[in-house]
């Protein structure tokens, strides 16, 4: 039905969906180029790529069972190839702990769970019931994937920063959801259309949040990260204040000695005076830190 000339608009939207989705699959290339250059995954997570690979595998299986869904097969085959390359690159450059974690979720999700779905649908169902069952499995998984951005939306609201929610990616995902919704609507496939309603909704929310927070002053998130940032900022204050106070030390020590000699008091050594002055300056620095540190993260 995807290639049928009786549904030219379905073919047009399916082709457009292939193009947009293909560009979306290529979006992580800068991330993996950075990983390749640094020979390290630098804290990046492998879960999104393993999940994307599972999603592509699941939709290919659905399209093959339903038959005559060439446009679904083409884009998801491309997705399988691209996501596999990402996962392999991640596995090559990750540390031992990350490699073990990636291997576990890959074997559990892409081998174990996908194999169970295949056996479940092929052995227990036939004909239309098999398509319906597999279709709802695809819908359920797609909905769970679309719900995932809720954590990013929460983070944007909390930090008032859109650093981790690029507008171009949100836009491409929204356009992809619209196109695939129309494709599913035109070929009368609710399993393709339904998940993309949610995808479109979340995409619009992300873009609205981006426009709202793009010029806002970021707020440091609470918890351990806030403590780390507060400590780092306090250390900056220490370094700056010491740099400002230290030039005065020699002048203060040189001015004290002549006065003490005239008064008949025992002269203090220069080293002792410098140490005393340094201690006084250190106390001043500590006061500055204790006053400025609580203000970190206030917009």
Which H/E pattern describes the elements? HHHHHHHHHHHH
Roughly what percent helix?
over 70%
Average predicted local confidence, pLDDT = 75
Task: State the assembly state of the protein chains.
Answer: single chain
Please state roughly what percent of the residues sit in beta strands, choosing from under 5%, 5-15%, 15-25%, 25-35%, 35-45% or over 45%.
under 5%
Description:
By secondary structure, this protein is mainly α. Helices cover 79% and strands 0% of the residues. It is built from 12 helices and no strands. It has helices at 8-25, 29-38, 47-66, 70-93, 96-124, 127-147, 150-159, 167-186, 190-213, 224-245, 248-262, 270-292. The protein is globular and about 55 Å long.
Compact summary:
Belongs to the SWEET sugar transporter family. This protein is mainly alpha-helical. The chain has helices spanning 8-25, 29-38, 47-66, 70-93, 96-124, 127-147, 150-159, 167-186, 190-213, 224-245, 248-262, 270-292.
Kindly list the characteristics that best describe this protein.
single chain, 79% helix, 299 residues, mainly alpha
Q: What is the strand and helix layout of this fold?
A:
Layout lengths: L7 H18 L3 H10 L8 H20 L3 H24 L2 H29 L2 H21 L2 H10 L7 H20 L3 H24 L10 H22 L2 H15 L7 H23 L7
Helix pairs in contact: 1-4, 1-8, 3-4, 3-5, 3-6, 4-5, 5-6, 6-9, 7-9, 8-9, 10-12, 11-12
């Amino acid at each position: 039905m995807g290639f049928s000339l009786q549904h030219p608009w379905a073919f047009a939207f399916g082709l457009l969906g292939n193009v947009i989705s293909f560009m979306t699959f290529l979006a992580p290339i800068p991330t993996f180029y950075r990983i390749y250059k640094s020979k390290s995954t630098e804290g990046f997570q492998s879960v999104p790529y393993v999940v994307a690979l599972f999603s592509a595998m699941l939709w290919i299986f659905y399209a093959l069972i339903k038959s005559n869904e060439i446009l679904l097969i083409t884009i998801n085959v491309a997705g399988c190839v691209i996501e596999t390359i990402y996962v392999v690159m991640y596995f090559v450059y990750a540390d031992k702990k990350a490699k073990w974690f990636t291997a576990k979720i890959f074997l559990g999700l892409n081998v174990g769970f996908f194999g169970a779905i295949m056996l479940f649908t092929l052995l227990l169902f036939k004909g239309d019931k098999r398509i319906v069952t597999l279709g709802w499995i695809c819908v359920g998984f797609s909905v769970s994937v679309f719900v995932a951005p809720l954590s990013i939306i929460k983070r944007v609201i909390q930090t008032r920063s859109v650093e981790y929610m690029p507008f171009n990616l949100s836009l491409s995902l929204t356009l992809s959801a619209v196109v695939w919704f129309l494709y599913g609507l035109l070929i009368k496939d609710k399993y393709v259309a339904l998940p993309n309603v949610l995808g479109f909704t979340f995409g619009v929310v992300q873009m609205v949040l981006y426009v709202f927070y793009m010029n806002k002053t970021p707020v440091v998130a609470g918890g351990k990260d806030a403590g780390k940032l507060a400590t780092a900022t306090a250390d900056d204050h220490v370094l700056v204040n010491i740099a400002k106070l230290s030039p005065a030390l020699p002048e203060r020590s040189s001015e004290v000695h002549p006065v003490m000699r005239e008064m008949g008091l025992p002269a203090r050594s220069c080293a002792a005076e410098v140490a005393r002055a340094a201690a006084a300056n250190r106390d001043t620095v500590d006061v500055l830190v204790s006053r400025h540190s609580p203000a970190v993260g206030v917009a």
